[in-house]
Amino acid sequence: MSHRFAVMIDRLIMFHRLESSRITQAFEDEIRMNLDSAFAFEKELSTAWSKWLENKSNLGNYLGFFRKEGPNLFKFWLTNVFPFDASNLKIEFPIGPSPVDIILNFSYTFGEEEMKILTESLQMNGLMMDPAQALNIIFSNAIKSIVNSVSKVFQVDYKIFTEGVETKSLNSNRIQISYRGAGRVQK
Fold it and tell me: Contact at 8 Å (CB) between 30 and 16?
């Protein structure tokens, strides 16, 4: 895991400098670097979605689908397409305001080794950025980058919107990022 994480961090920082104007493209590039995992994810998503739709009463019930299948699917996305450690990941889909509105509550604890990799890459590339800010950008964009695959399988335009990202220092060598977002089908 740490080698894959280091390679991803170096690419994001060296080639894209975590700039907001380039970050979407940076994560699309990361997905292309892990195309086999991305295709395997789409197959898993497609199988789960097809099975879900076998019950006609589930049509349009995106909330129910994500509450049932979302934790495993996002875990697959974040640990196979991206190099996050499953043991440091927490994924929840609380009840939303309607069957089409999905609430996402995710957290990830970046460990000592990941923090060292990030700090060294920021320094080596002369990027003067608070490590917590860099981790916010990296974790939230890894989550949101799933939308193209979801849109393709669901055959609708699907978006995830960030509602908030919080950072908590657990000690000098670990940081927890908590992400709150909303997923919606776009008309």
Answer: no
The domains of the chain are located at 2-186
Between CA 187 and CA 54 the distance in angstroms is 24
pLDDT per residue of the chain (187 residues) written in tens, 0 to 9 = 589 999 999 999 988 889 888 999 999 999 999 999 999 999 999 999 999 999 878 878 899 999 999 999 999 999 999 999 999 999 999 998 888 889 999 999 999 999 999 999 999 999 999 999 999 999 999 999 999 999 999 999 999 999 999 999 988 689 999 999 999 998 7
Q: How far is CA 116 from CA 4, 45, 147, in A?
A: 14, 34, 30
Q: CA-to-CA distance for 149 and 40, rounded, in angstroms?
A: 11
